[in-house]
Write a structure and sequence with these properties.
Layout lengths: L4 H14 L3 E4 L4 H14 L3 E2 L9 E3 L13 E3 L4 H4 L8 H12 L7 E9 L8 E7 L2 H10 L1 E2 L1 H7 L6 E6 L9 E5 L4 E5 L4 H4 L2 H17 L2 E3 L1 E7 L5 E7 L6 H5 L5 H4 L4 E6 L3 E5 L5 E4 L4 E5 L9 H6 L5 E3 L2 E3 L4 E3 L11 E2 L5 E2 L14 E5 L16 E9 L9 E3 L3 H9 L2 E3 L11 E3 L12 H14 L5 E5 L19 H11 L6 E3 L2 E3 L14 H8 L3 H15 L7 H14 L1
Parallel strand pairs: 1-5, 3-18, 4-9, 6-8, 8-10, 13-24, 24-28
Antiparallel strand pairs: 2-3, 5-6, 5-7, 9-10, 11-15, 12-13, 12-14, 15-16, 16-24, 17-23, 18-23, 19-20, 19-21, 21-22, 25-28, 26-27, 29-30
Helix pairs in contact: 12-13, 12-17, 16-17
Bound molecules: guanosine-5'-triphosphate, sulfopyruvate and manganese (II) ion.
């Protein structure tokens, strides 16, 4: 399929290592994809769902031990340990290659190796970057077809160039003891073995578009971030864009597709989705920071998605979608998950494939990290700028996480530098998106802790450096939809009503809203958060905006401890922390 000698030599080298029975190049044609779906249905890798109700939709289960990203088995292999930094697992590249080669040796015997060329970003965009993933999984090919742009057009755009990310993936034996997700940023290479789950194996996503891309971004002067991108259109038809970084399973897909509450909808406000997980940002000629979404689909959390919480996401899953680890409804061959509706199927199979009755079972039917893979074109509110090769200008950057008490509903940083500080001190309760304990508070700077492909101290410095290069800097905010009351219930209604907070944020960007200064930054006056039509009162909003000096003094200690891990912490951030402590006295 290509005359590119660098590509063919590398494919040959990997073929010799993994020893598949055959090698198939994916050209992206519908005929080829359809033949692969048929093959996957025969082996049970994919199950075809009811084609009248869910046309083009398929169902897949992963192994029970393989349902989330594995952060303790994810490595950044730079030649020097310091370049991976204190927050990444590291091993010397030669040592890691030597460790992994035996795991890949003959791993594809009896299988087919698919050669999958893909583009992150619209093919030909100045933002776009290309990759090739070699994989022995049809499920991976089908997911990458939804999540990225694949096939012959990418090979053509690559031409003779050796500038592409070399991805090698084998399911091997799905052996959790030998599962490794490894990045060699200096070689533009990713090796992933013994997993078949999303973020571990769809190498365009977290591995390339965040870990490798963040490394490239630092070298080349741009940024790769774990951010959604959305546009808010006002009644005059002007659209302002924001980018928001929340940790995994903390509300990016939901915010990206929100439906404005009636008070805004009736006035003509609209929200448009550009991306729900990843943003690549560059300083544009006009002095703005512009963002593209390098992906082409949504790999979204299924549980909790319903017509009320996220109508647009649900609509996106009605055709050409792959469902992973949800409930299979045997009654009508469709899917279900916790939080979809109050009518769970009685004749069903759970995510493990066991008979499951939603009316009587005490166990959950869908895995908490079960997912849908849906094409972006299906989304009713997809932005008309989605394919814009130049991206959209960002007015505000928003950080956020799950904090039961500490962080107020929203606050604004004083300036870019204090905004970088706000991002760097982010913390959030862990979720089912990664293997390990759930609900434990951990520091997750810029929601990038599991995704930064280099030393996080250098990453903070890169953020500070970028700020100096942006003539029209976005304003930086922090939000928290997850404050709870004494019974542990969320106080803020969240979801579509988060628009009420976005409106204050955009008004601040235009200098139209007031604020109150606190030790951590500026919070709204309670009356400036519109609560018309909600059943919470002004005092509740005041409570949500409260900054408790005692809790924040403890927080400052936690930050001090976290910062002490970094020997490359920029002095600006150490200074920001000192100033925070001063203001808390
Ligand atoms: P990744 O795909 O893992 O990066 O996750 P994400 O950040 O896109 O999270 P997503 O929007 O899928 O939300 C994850 C969970 O948080 C779902 O169960 C949602 O129902 C819940 N959630 C999202 N937004 C809100 C909110 O505003 N309030 C509350 N209480 N829950 C929310
Ligand atoms: C996340 O965990 O942040 C996800 C899902 O978006 S995964 O692709 O598995 O990384
Ligand atoms: Mn994510």
């Amino acid at each position: 399929m290509t005359a590119n000698k660098i590509v063919t030599a590398w494919v040959e080298e990997m073929r010799a290592l993994t020893k598949p029975d055959q090698v198939v190049w994916i050209d992206g044609s519908e005929a080829q994809l359809e033949a692969l779906r048929k093959e996957a249905m025969e082996t049970g890798e994919l199950h075809q769902l009811n084609q009248d109700l869910l046309p083009g939709c398929y169902y897949h289960r992963t192994a029970e031990n393989d349902v989330a990203r594995v952060e303790d088995r994810t490595f950044i292999c730079t030649s020097k340990k310091e370049d991976a930094g204190p927050t990444n697992n590291w091993m010397a590249p030669a040592e890691m290659y030597a460790k992994l080669r035996p795991l890949f040796d003959g791993a594809m015997k009896g299988r087919t190796m698919y050669v999958l060329p893909y583009s992150m970003g619209p093919v030909g965009s100045p933002f776009a970057k290309y990759g090739i993933e070699l994989t022995d999984s049809i499920y991976v090919v089908m997911n990458m077809n939804i999540m990225t742009r694949i096939g012959a057009s990418v090979i053509e755009a690559m031409g003779e160039s050796g500038d592409f990310v070399k991805g090698l993936h084998s399911k091997a034996q799905i052996d959790p003891e030998n599962r490794y997700i490894v990045h060699f940023p200096e070689d533009n290479t990713i090796w992933s073995v013994n997993s078949g789950y999303g973020g571990n194996v769809l190498l365009g996503k977290k591995c390339f578009a965040l870990r490798i891309a963040s490394f490239l971004g630092r070298k080349e002067g741009w940024m790769a971030e774990h951010m959604l991108i959305l546009g808010v259109e006002n009644p005059q038809g002007e659209v302002k864009y924001v980018a928001a970084a929340f940790p995994s399973a903390c509300g990016k897909t939901n915010l990206a597709m929100l439906i404005p509450p009636e008070i805004y909808k009736s006035k003509g406000y609209k929200v448009w989705t550009v991306g729900d997980d990843i943003a690549w940002l560059r300083v544009a000629e006009d002095g703005t920071l512009r963002a593209i979404n390098p992906e082409n689909g949504f790999f979204g959390v299924a549980p909790g998605t319903n017509a009320k919480t996220n109508f647009n996401a649900l609509e996106s899953t009605k055709k050409n979608t792959i469902f992973t680890n949800v409930v299979l409804n045997k009654e009508n061959n469709t899917v279900w998950w916790e939080g979809l509706d109050k009518n769970p199927p009685e004749n069903a199979e759970d995510w493990k494939g066991r008979p499951w009755n939603g009316k009587t079972s005490t166990e959950k039917g869908a895995h908490p990290n079960s997912r849908f893979t849906a094409p972006a074109v299906n989304c009713p509110c997809i932005s008309k700028e989605f394919e814009n090769p130049e991206g959209v200008p960002i007015s505000a950057i928003i950080f956020g996480g799950r904090r039961a008490k500490t962080a107020p509903l929203v606050y604004q940083s004083r300036d870019w530098e204090s905004g970088v500080f706000v991002g760097s001190i982010m913390a959030s309760e862990t979720t089912a998106a990664a293997a390990g304990a759930v609900g434990v508070v951990r520091r997750d700077p810029m929601a990038m802790l599991p995704f930064c492909g280099y030393n996080m101290g250098d990453y903070f410095a890169h953020w500070l450096e970028m700020g100096k290069k942006i003539p029209h800097q976005p304003k930086i905010f922090n939000v928290n939809w997850f404050r709870t009351d004494d019974e542990g219930h969320f106080i803020w209604p969240g979801f579509g009503d988060n628009m009420r907070v976005l409106m204050w944020i955009l008004d601040r960007c235009e200098g139209k809203a007031d604020a109150v200064e606190t030790p951590i930054g500026y919070v709204p006056k309670a009356e400036d958060i519109n609560i018309e039509g909600l059943d919470i009162d002004r005092e509740t909003v005041e409570g949500l905006l409260e900054v408790d000096k005692k809790i924040w003094s403890e927080e400052a200690e936690g930050i001090t401890e976290f910062y002490s891990k970094f020997d490359r912490l920029p002095k600006e951030l150490a200074h920001q922390l000192e100033m925070l402590k001063e203001r808390l006295k």
